[in-house]
Amino acid sequence: MSGQGHSDIPNGTSTVSTRNSFQSFGARSPMMVTFVLVSLLVTIGVVSVYLKPSTIVLSELYSPGSLWRQYTLREAVEYISKNNTVIVCAVGEAYLLLLNNWLISVARQKHVEQVLVIAEDYPTLYTVNQRWPGHAVMLSPALEPASNNYGSMILELGYDVMYNDVDMVWMKDPFPYLEGSHEVYYADDWFENCSCFIYLRPTWGAKLLLTTWDKEMNSQAWHEGVNDQPPFNWAIAKTSGKVDGYLLPRIAFPSGNLFFGNLTWANETDGQHAIVHNNFIVGKDRKIQRFRDRGLWLIDNHSDESPLGKL
């Protein structure tokens, strides 16, 4: 972002005489003034299409089709990444409220500017970028929601990737839990590994895991409509010994079955949770109500803390 500077007026021309000259010009030819102003606005509009998101000031005025459909993953990652890391989520219009709630929790841990939303539809792409320019991208052609190809693409660009489901709330900063230099980190989901939270470094092993996972997702062995977690676990098994994976502690990354289903455990371990996952329950409205019941539906009273504001 460029700051405002002070420009010198050449040849000693004073601001007073300049202003008087313009007023005199306007008085003589009001139609000419109108023409000049309209021409200037059109020129600004044309030039702005080619500017990066960080230089766009009046992005809300631009037609979405003229800008965000041309926004590439490389541009987005270069704009958003911090410490060579991008926090990624994939979401469609129906789950924008859950996205907003999650963003508040991420903002409280000072990492929200690293978030990139992979939009699964155009309303999400436009809504996010209108309110938070540059933080949403739709891959072209748009990927299937279950696909993890965008993770592989970001790794190929040389960046670390932290993937989150949006039915989560950050209670603490999760980065200190990424101990050592493992290639892949993932959470426990009670009886299997969870594809809801994954951290990957741009290594050969991490890329192999995502490639294997994608092949499993597209395998005829998985019928249409199955979620991506069983194929993720099969991919981990098939790449065992080739990928340095690390299972994050259950107490810090509890599943919904544990945190919401066992209140005694949740109370006894209070203060030790990093990210809470609201899974083991189906339906957006039911997830929202369960968040509310535990005081974790943040957007009712804290929507101003989200970069998207109140939706």
Give structural attributes:
311 residues; alpha/beta; two-stranded antiparallel ribbon; 13 helices
Write up what this structure looks like:
There is one protein chain. The chain has 13 helices and nine strands. It is of the alpha/beta class. The radius of gyration is 24 Å and the shape is globular. It has helices at 15-28, 30-48, 64-67, 73-80, 96-108, 122-131, 149-156, 204-217, 229-238, 256-259, 263-268, 284-293, 299-302, and strands at 85-91, 115-119, 136-137, 160-164, 168-170, 184-188, 193-200, 245-247, 275-277. The strands form two sheets. A seven-stranded mixed β-sheet has the order 3-2-1-4-7-6-8, sandwiched between helices. Strands 5-9 form a two-stranded antiparallel sheet. 34% of the residues are buried. The model is unreliable at 1-30, 32-38, 40-62 and 142-146 (pLDDT under 50).
Topology:
Layout: H1 15-28, H2 30-48, H3 64-67, H4 73-80, E1 85-91, H5 96-108, E2 115-119, H6 122-131, E3 136-137, H7 149-156, E4 160-164, E5 168-170, E6 184-188, E7 193-200, H8 204-217, H9 229-238, E8 245-247, H10 256-259, H11 263-268, E9 275-277, H12 284-293, H13 299-302
Helix pairs in contact: 1-2, 7-8, 8-9
